Amino acid sequence: MKSFSKREADRRTFLEQVRESKENGYLLSSKKIGSGAFSKVYLGYATQEKMMQNYKLASDLRSKRHSMVAIKIISTAEAPVEYTKKFLPREIYSLNVTYKHLNVVSPWGACAGPFALWTGSFTSSTC
């Protein structure tokens, strides 16, 4: 069972992630859809402002009839330097190479900050 201070720290971290996602044009939900050693993936939504800025994203989401995106949040403070310098760029590159595949999330952006964020759209409206 988590202590009160740990839960409070987790809540503050999540609120900071919500703020950072919103600054980058996405609304982060509390629904976690996956996690890894240094990251968590949440369901999010592209804002109207983001879709007005990014025609390809808007077109992709309109064709899928939803505005859901996956938002992967990597804690750059917790991840080893080797991961953020070597493996994270490789992961983003791999997604960009395979972005047209039906079973792979289409990448739409990456942002650097206290948390590295990258977003991608789902292949269908189910989550």
Automatic annotation (TrEMBL):
Ranges annotated as spanning the membrane: none
Domain Protein kinase residues, every copy: 27-127
GO molecular function: ATP binding; protein kinase activity
Superkingdom of origin organism: Eukaryota
SUPFAM superfamilies, per database record: Protein kinase-like (PK-like)
Pfam families assigned to the protein according to its UniProt record, in alphabetical order: PK_Tyr_Ser-Thr
UniProt protein name: Protein kinase domain-containing protein
Species name: Podarcis muralis (Wall lizard)
Lineage of the species this protein comes from: Eukaryota, Metazoa, Chordata, Craniata, Vertebrata
